[in-house]
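2024-03-11 09:14:02 DEBUG pipeline.ingest accepted 1 chain
2024-03-11 09:14:02 DEBUG pipeline.ingest length=93
2024-03-11 09:14:03 DEBUG pipeline.predict start
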Amino acid sequence: MHFILECHDKDGGLDLRMATRPEHLAYMESRLDHIVIAGPILDADGGRPVGSLIILDYPDRAGAEDFAANDPYARAGLFKSVTIRPYRKVLPA
C-alpha cells in the first residue's frame, strides 16, 4: 500500500536541514525498496527547501510511521508538522 509522507520544516530550519542532510540521504538510500518517489518541498520561489514529500510503499501504516519517526530529519527536530495519508496511484498505469 502507498502512503504520502508530507513534512514541513520549522521556521528557520534550513541550517538544521543542511547539517542533517548527509545522514538523511544515507537513511533514504538504505530504504529505497520502500520509496516510490521522494524530494524536497520548495518555497514559493522554488529555491529553498521548506519540507519533504515522500511516497512510500509499505504493507501497512505502521511501516510508514516507523519510516517517518526514524528519518534523521525527524530525529533532529526539523519538522513542525508531519502528515501520513494513504495514497492510490492511478496514472500513469
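2024-03-11 09:14:41 DEBUG pipeline.report The beta strands are 2-9, 35-42, 49-57, 79-87.
2024-03-11 09:14:41 DEBUG pipeline.predict end
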